[in-house]
Amino acid sequence: MPQSQLVSLQFYRVLGVTFLVLYAAGQLPGIFALPAGWGDVMVGSTALIVGARAARNENDQFVTLWNWLGISDLVIAIATGFLSAASRFQIFSLDAPNVLIGSFPLVMVPIFAVPLSIVLHLASLSKIWAVHRSVMKQAVSA
Predict the structure, then answer these.
(1) Rounded to whole angstroms, how far apart are CA atoms 10 and 36?
(2) Deepest of 73, 87, 131, 142, by most Cβ within 10 A of its Cβ?
(3) Which letter, b or e, does each residue of 80-107 get, where b requires 16 or more Cβ atoms within 10 Å of its Cβ?
(4) How many beta carbons lie within 10 A of that of residue 137, not counting itself?
(5) What is the C-alpha separation between 127 and 57, in angstroms, rounded?
(6) Domain boundaries in the chain?
(7) Are 102 and 85 in contact (CB under 8 A)?
(8) What is the CA 38 to chain-centroid distance, rounded?
(9) 22-61, pLDDT tens digit by residue?
(10) Radius of gyration of the chain, Cα coordinates, nearest whole angstrom
(11) Could you give the CA distance from residue 69 to residue 125 in angstroms, rounded to a whole number?
(12) Neighbours of 67 (CB within 10 A)
């Protein structure tokens, strides 16, 4: 799969605005919804721009940075979602636990969308690293 498609495919993450809407409705705690929602909106809304740059083979460093920002957003969302959900590990949002994230349809986010996003980010980074390894081998053999 071309790099541009691996990146652009993550446009679906703009659906993270759902977390912001549910927060505004008082149904999700802010400690989870705000960073997860805004992070997903930022990564999703920039996916097409970064994908277009990748299609023109422009600036692998920009694509690399975008991938690491996307992974960071997911790590923060997982951590705050887990630590604000009603469980023995809950340390955030004790007065209003994050119960919706364990209910359908939102449970599809941690079960399906987060692993898919991580795989897409890692595949994108893997392509960049493969190109760099190839360039380094050519430089050494020359």
Answers:
(1) 15
(2) 73
(3) bbbbbbeeeeeebbeeebbebbeeeebe
(4) 10
(5) 12
(6) 3-141
(7) yes
(8) 11
(9) 999 999 999 999 999 999 999 999 999 999 999 998 768 9
(10) 18
(11) 12
(12) 23
Distance, in Å, from the CA atom of 87 to the CA atom of 85, rounded to the nearest integer, reads 6
Is the model's pLDDT at 3 over the cut of 90? yes
Residues 20/33, Cβ–Cβ less than 8 Å? yes
For 14-45, b where at least 16 C-beta lie within 10 A, e where not — what string?
bebebbbebbeeeebbbbbbebbbebbbbbbe
Q: H helices within 25-113, ranges in order?
A: 30-55, 60-84, 108
The total number of residues written for the chain in this structure: 142
